[in-house]
Amino acid sequence: MGKDRSPHVLVFPIPLQGHINSMIKLAELLALAGFRLTFLNSDLNHNRLLKFTNFATHFARYPGFEFKTITDGLPLDHPRSGNWFMEMYEQVIETKMKQNLREMLLNISPPVDCIIGDGFLGFSIDVAKELGIPIICFRTSSPHGFWAYYSIPDIIQAGELPIKGSEDMDRLITTVPGMETYLRCRDLPSFCRAPDMEDPIIKLVVKETRRSTQADALILNTTEELDGPILSQICTKCPTVYAIGPINAQLNTRLKAEHREPHDHFSNTLWEEDESCISWLDKQPNRSVIYVSFGSITSMSREKLVELWYGLINSKAKFLLVVRPNFVTGDEGEDDVVCELLEKTKDRGYTVHWAPQEAVLNHPAVGGFLTHSGWNSTLESIVAGVPMICWPYFADQQVNSRAVSEVWKIGLDMKDVCDRKTVEKMVNDVMVDQKEFSKSATELSQVTNRSVSVGGSSYNNLDRLVEDIRVMCL
Ligand code: UDP
Predict the structure, then answer these.
(1) ipTM
(2) pLDDT (tens digit, 9 = 90+) per residue, 227-286?
(3) Among 386, 416, 383, which Cα is nearest to 398's?
(4) Model's pTM, two decimal places?
(5) Who's near 274: CB < 8 A, 6+ residues apart?
(6) What residue ranges are annotated as transmembrane (predicted)?
């Protein structure tokens, strides 16, 4: 006999900004579909959201939407920088978090009918299976990244890894189906640059990626139009895949249909947004500003920041630069660098600690995005139709930037040559000689936005996901 209440879904991201962003949006989409939701966040990140955002009042509109917290296992005053992520994995994730999740699921009322777990928290699959709860994995990284991670053992087996030094970086990799024509050694996930394929991070990434395919289904933040060939490959390993992205655009469409405010008025970020940059952008001509941001985790040496700064100053564009707290590494610290930059760049640019990124990308003054190629940032730029200049750092960023330049042809990839001359040239290429990239970026934006409109592929896939969860929970 069926339950006479709406399905109760638990959404559980890993404690990182990019993951929280897309998973909280998915939770809201499911709340709009009438489900009861529990969003499980690390206690530290929950408190940061409370401090910096209006999320508590925002979600109060959904009856049955609850926030619960879980410890990430590290002390609250731990700086969570440097190698903290591996530290968290090695020391606590598989033990403490797993145990806490299990206890919570045993005690929660009404019981959870379906878990949507972060693809990097594979232990939640074990817990769900043990307790007989259906589980769907949400992989928040790009499908290109997911498929490259999945394929690492095959690349090693074929003798195409490890990479044999810097002269080997442009060799094509032939053992990742779907990417044979454009994936070079330098475009592989950053971990593949390790000289030793026994590196713990490689093992972890492969383990977590392969484990995701043991869930009942997989959710990916993309569209069939963007990633069709890669999605077909992923489906050979996990037959039920829902491509429902870009999730920010999907949420905006669904909110508009309900006559609610678009999502960019609700902030879900872990730092306080500096809205003053919007007033600064309001005073700039159309498409005259390059927005420069490296996401929530990447840090940069003082030396690299100076190269970036000279490249920007020497280019012909104005810029809006995000320098997050703790962004600059090294002994000299961040503050003196930032003060120096602010002082010298008053007439050419504007610097903030954290920007309202979606609003910035959709501002008419912004004509380009110099990005670290994190997947959320890439999708947000695609939706807004803004061409990219890619300066990738780690994980899926190397392969994302390759897709931007070679598959979608909506920007330039400066990977591995990020000096002031290259920055200057690429900024001018994208911002001054705008025609080529703005045309292709506008076209891709239109295709992508159509996919989340009524009848579009991502729109239909979300409806299918909602229906399948209902059936799972009967
Ligand atoms: N972001 C933001 N303001 C900033 C910089 C980043 O709101 O000043 C948001 C951005 O919109 C994106 C997320 O932070 O949704 C970063 O995620 P991404 O996957 O691009 O990179 P990660 O932080 O995971 O490396």
Answers:
(1) 0.99
(2) 999 999 999 999 899 999 999 999 999 999 887 766 545 566 677 889 999 999 999 999
(3) 416
(4) 0.94
(5) 352, 353, 354, 355
(6) none
